[in-house]
Amino acid sequence: MSPRFTELWRGGASRRFERRSGVIDHPDIGPVKTDSTVLTVPEGDLKLLVFTAEPGSADACKLAKLQTLSSEKQLRA
Predict the structure, then answer these.
(1) Which of 12, 22, 27, 38 could join 18 via S-S bond, C-beta 3.0 to 4.6 A?
(2) CA nearest 34: which of 23, 26, 18?
(3) Residues in a beta bridge with 35
(4) Whether this model's pTM surpasses 0.85
(5) What tens-digit pLDDT sequence spans the chain (77 residues)?
(6) Record's Gene3D superfamilies (predicted)?
């Protein structure tokens, strides 16, 4: 982590976070069960969404495949 991130984190710049679970139905890889964390910056409308899947699960494999598909599409563009 960067020193600036560490400073902001320790200072409480992102005090509010939510955890959610759900299913994303992606057109290329189908349904993916995810856990997500939403970090909200106080006094603003900035949010960071982080989607993860259970390590080693079929859903984690789908997310890895999605990363590969995205890279391939960028190379073709």
Answers:
(1) 38
(2) 23
(3) 21, 52
(4) no
(5) 788 877 877 776 656 667 889 999 999 899 999 999 888 777 777 888 888 999 999 999 999 998 888 888 777 87
(6) 3.30.450.180
